[in-house]
Structure of PA domain-containing protein:
Amino acid sequence: MGRVEYRVICMTIWMSMIVIGGAEPVVVVLKGGEEVCGLYNPMFAALPASSGKGRASQYVKMTISEPLNACEKLVGDGFSGSAVLVERGSCSFAEKAQHVERAGGSLVVVENTEDSFITPVANASLGEYDEVNIPVIVVNHSGGLVLRTGDDVRLNAYEIVEPAWLAVGEEFASVVAGLIGVLVVVCGSILATKPKDRTPARPSSSVKKGTNPEKGDAEAIIILDRPVTIFLVMSVQLLLLYLLYDYVVHIVIISFAIGAGGSLVFILRQFTKPDAPDVLVIPRLGVKATAADIVLTALAITLSVLWYSFRHSSWSWILQNILGIFLMLFVMQTLKLPSIKVGVILLSCLFLYDIFFVFVTPLFTSTGESVMERVARGGPTSSEHLPMMIVVPYLFSPPSACLGGRGASMIGYGDVIVPGLFIVRLRAFELKAARERNGQEVPSYFKGAVIGYGIGLVLTIVALRLMDTAQPALLWIVPSVVLSAVVVAARRGELAMLWSENADNPSPTAVDTEEATPAPVSGDG
């Protein structure tokens, strides 16, 4: 079986464990060393446990049941002390196990009729668990075909236990991913609220602009003044990905490669000399470029092409994170909230958005899997994944493929950008208020919000570990960030002022710190 199959298998195992309690991952090892993954229920009988390659039980001969479904007394000899492969269906797991045990079998391996995993269960109120004294394992159809191969198949089975060092690698990856998220929020907020000496012109008829009258340069600023509309648009986009994933994912991948490359040029160009001479001029095309522009463009194209070409490689996460960081910084610098009030409304809408698509949608899907998890995991047939997450692989690979492939800690870009935009607005408000306080020491909105964001990430990780199920990050981040702003505002005596702050009372964003004329803004809030 290939690595991709194993990853799909192990993901299915863990999803089954989320939906159905009492399941434990188990490894069935053939004499030649090949592994077949399965689930078993220790309430029947416990298997030996192992956290590594060491085998915790002896190899036993595998025989195929006769009749195949084991719903009647087994016919023939040769079952004594052996693992018996039976077919799922026609009777309960307890009945199958009882017939195998009476024939002398030491282990029941139930082959599912589909390539999915289920937990073997019995009726506890009728005492069925007490009537079975041998372990019962369920493997999927592909695993059953592997076990049928060969004339003299010998195997052993054990419950695979996650070793402590594997958990350390997971926690380290979570910390690194969280630090990247915090770093992007901090850097993005600083870049978005500092005066610009030179900003690349990006005119667009679909955005509202602030213009520096001295420089004549225009920075495209998209005002997010309709939070409810944004909520609806994001919901439609997510549903499109859910329904048409295999098609839409390719559009997202290409858009990411182009957009992230352009973002890299946009961000790094701000650190070049604004008065550098043009070394490339094409009048007919209206192209003028400095040496730095050429170098940055070449770098962006190289990184984007490399990532696109090798996005399925084990090391592609490095390039994806580099490009993704610049994309998030660009978005934080380009999108603006017109007021703190609108920011709170937007965060509240997306707070409900995350909860609905993670916890409520499983009630309506045929598989019981949430829309958000399905989109994050990928489509039913496509091997492509959305490149919209910070990804940090775990330090160590698990000792068995049945614990999953080399996993990764992930944070969605939206879980960084959305709180980041709110923190940008808080920092802008703080900078304006600082001028009026004449250096008076007061608690910082910016520092408080960044700490709140970090606490939200920590709570997300803790909830993920305790609940052992997918967590919508904004469920924890939004209250932490908003509450931090409320606490700081209360200490500064500015609660009413913070809530009524808006673009009509302009704050020092990247445009209006240079006394640009702000565009009129209307909002739902």
